[in-house]
């Protein structure tokens, strides 16, 4: 429990430093010399390298530490200590810095020095970078795959590379959709993969993976159907080793494999780049390619040119034969590189990784589609949105226009809408193109807005010019709403009563109200009626019956004459309409419908009035008989003469 509590506290307090330590702060497989002897309890027992580093930070005089995970021993080192190789150990400084100098700096010209101290001082951080110091690791110290750079293809059998490498291991546990190539890409220590021509017991091609894959040109390895050499992550060159001999390297292939040494040196570099444990490669014209392979030999640390730990020779015959060579550092920087989703085929796309020296044979499988495809998709989506928005807007505008037209029509032809006497400017503009039908010339259209509204209590009389209006009219008048009109006479039938033929010359007359009420002017015409004549001033009641009889005869004659004229009316031949647009056809159709309705209404009103005229004349005659004490002046025409000559 105590150890668990200490670990939790350490993770909370030291998390930022832990992140930095994974990228250059710690040295795996190394320890410090000159352990501190004046500190009680040294070595301490700790549960992790970060906790051991915290102990060093809290101890005066401590400059570095060495931690052994298997035993949990934590050694504190003083000033003047040096790194040395120690299997299973983890060494680190008192404090970590970010970025660590080992991952970004280069040595000066004095490197390598004649002694370990001089070689260390040649580096800005005071320490020569160790193997995979700047590569990500797991908590147990083992290397993990590079998250942002999965793998790139360096050599491929499609480009003429034989791929018959030695040192390969058969893979028999592929799972599901996992391919031989994907297994190698997901394993940071896998450099080469190949598929053999023969198949296993299940009928599937045999898969091989190799940590390095040596002697791939003249080797005894299986003949592959497809093979590739991969590089995990990225790298940087720390130093050129041309003209010197680095001791402890292993020969990978001879100097006669390629036609030129330049081509051989390039492929030698590929092999070192593909193998994470390789820091040095050299190419000799005579002996070919040499690589650092820890299982075959060890290169001294740090590099020195003399002394008991000499690791570099400057004046040997082999050094003079080295025409190319480098000291590399594997790291994990750069852009994200996607993993392949299927086995590589003959149509594989090969890409050169920016910032890396490689010939045209350096290839990489690349997923996804080109950038211009994404650009075209974006443009298509934008255009589609514009079309949809435009269509919606046009639909809304068309709906508004239709509603406005319907509202104008209702307001123009509905008397209840407040436009019975006229139209507004907007309605007039809409209706100006309506074509009214041509009526027969013998029809007389009176004022369709009669009668005007008369206030309640006003009396309406029949007067002529020059006379005062009567005070009252006998029982022959009935009150209708707010106006006094003759019984059985309604406002819709008044205009038809006033109808007259075009062949007669009639004079104007009016209906006026008492108290200066508005005049109800009609198109009544009578050649025998003079202005201002009052019906009640007639002094010839004896002639009332004769005049009524004459009025009936005149009415019957006029009705017969009207029928004869209507039968003679023949409509002119229709003129073929000119080609019209859809809007004009709609307007003309509406005009024709409106004209038909007006004609039908006029016809109905005339029919009603024809039936009521006879009753009206009889009623006027009866009214005259009922008048008693009448003061009608002699010579004044009767009611029949007032309405009809």
Automatic annotation (TrEMBL):
Domain Apple: start-end pairs: 25-96
Region (Disordered): 501-588
Pfam family membership, one: PAN_4
Name of the protein in question: Apple domain-containing protein
Keyword Manganese recorded: no
GO cellular component: extracellular region
Feature: compositional bias, Basic and acidic residues: 546-568
Annotated keywords: Disulfide bond, Membrane, Repeat, Signal, Transmembrane, Transmembrane helix
Alphabetical GO biological process terms: proteolysis
């Amino acid at each position: 429990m105590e150890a668990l509590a200490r670990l939790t506290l350490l993770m909370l307090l030291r998390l930022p430093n832990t992140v930095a330590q994974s990228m250059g702060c710690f040295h795996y497989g190394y320890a410090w010399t000159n352990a501190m002897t004046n500190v009680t309890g040294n070595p301490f027992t700790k549960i992790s390298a970060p906790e051991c580093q915290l102990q060093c930070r809290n101890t005066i005089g401590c400059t570095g530490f060495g931690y052994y995970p298997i035993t949990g021993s934590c050694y504190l080192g003083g000033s003047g200590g040096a790194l040395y190789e120690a299997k299973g150990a983890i060494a680190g400084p008192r404090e970590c810095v970010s970025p660590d100098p080992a991952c970004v700096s280069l040595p000066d010209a004095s490197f390598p020095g004649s002694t370990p101290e001089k070689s260390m001082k040649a580096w800005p951080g005071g320490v020569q970078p160790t193997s995979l110091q700047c590569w990500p690791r797991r908590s147990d110290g083992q290397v993990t795959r590079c998250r942002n750079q999965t793998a790139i293809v360096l050599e491929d059998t499609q480009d003429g590379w034989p791929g018959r490498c030695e040192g390969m291991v058969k893979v028999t546990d592929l799972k599901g959709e996992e391919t031989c190539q994907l297994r190698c890409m997901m394993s940071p220590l896998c450099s080469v993969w190949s598929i053999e021509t023969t198949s296993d017991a299940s009928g599937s091609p045999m898969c091989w993976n190799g940590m390095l894959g040596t002697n791939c040109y003249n080797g005894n390895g299986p003949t592959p159907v497809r093979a590739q050499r991969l590089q995990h992550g990225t790298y940087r060159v720390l130093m050129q080793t041309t003209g010197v001999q680095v001791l402890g390297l292993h020969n990978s292939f001879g100097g006669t494999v390629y036609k030129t040494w330049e081509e051989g040196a390039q492929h030698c570099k590929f092999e070192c780049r593909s193998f994470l444990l390789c820091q040095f490669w050299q190419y000799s014209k005579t002996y070919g390619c040499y690589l650092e392979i820890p299982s075959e030999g060890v290169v001294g640390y740090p590099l020195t040119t003399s002394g008991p730990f000499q690791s570099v020779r400057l004046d040997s015959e082999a050094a003079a034969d080295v025409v190319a060579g480098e000291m590399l550092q594997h790291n994990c920087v750069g852009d994200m590189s996607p993993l392949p989703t299927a086995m590589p085929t003959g149509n594989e796309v090969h890409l050169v990784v920016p910032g890396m020296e490689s010939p045209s044979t350096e290839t990489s499988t690349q997923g996804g589609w080109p950038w211009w495809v994404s650009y075209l998709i974006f443009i298509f989506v934008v255009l589609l949105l514009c079309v949809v928005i435009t269509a919606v807007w046009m639909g809304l505008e068309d709906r508004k226009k239709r509603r406005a037209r319907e509202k104008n029509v209702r307001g123009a032809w509905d008397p209840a809408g407040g436009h019975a006497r006229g139209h507004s400017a907007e309605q007039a503009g809409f209706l100006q193109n309506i074509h009214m039908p041509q009526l027969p010339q013998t029809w007389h259209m009176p004022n369709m807005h009669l009668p005007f509204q008369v206030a309640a209590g006003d009396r309406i009389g029949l007067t002529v010019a020059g006379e005062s209006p009567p005070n009252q009219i006998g029982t022959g008048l009935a009150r209708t709403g707010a106006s006094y009109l003759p019984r059985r006479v309604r406002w819709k039938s008044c205009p038809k009563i006033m109808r007259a033929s075009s062949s007669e010359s009639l004079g104007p007359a009016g209906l006026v109200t008492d108290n200066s009420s508005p005049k109800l002017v009609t198109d009544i015409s009578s050649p025998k009626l003079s202005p201002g004549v009052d019906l009640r001033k007639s002094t010839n009641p004896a002639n009332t019956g004769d005049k009524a009889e004459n009025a009936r005869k005149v009415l019957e004659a006029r009705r017969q004459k009207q029928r004869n004229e209507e039968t003679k009316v023949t409509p002119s031949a229709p003129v073929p309409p000119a080609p019209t647009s859809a809007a004009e056809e709609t307007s003309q159709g509406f005009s024709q419908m409106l004209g038909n309705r007006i004609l039908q209404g006029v016809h109905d009103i005339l029919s009603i009035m024809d039936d009521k005229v006879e009753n009206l004349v009889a009623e006027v005659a009866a009214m005259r008989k009922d008048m008693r004490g009448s003061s009608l002046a002699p010579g004044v025409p009767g009611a029949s003469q007032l309405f009809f000559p």
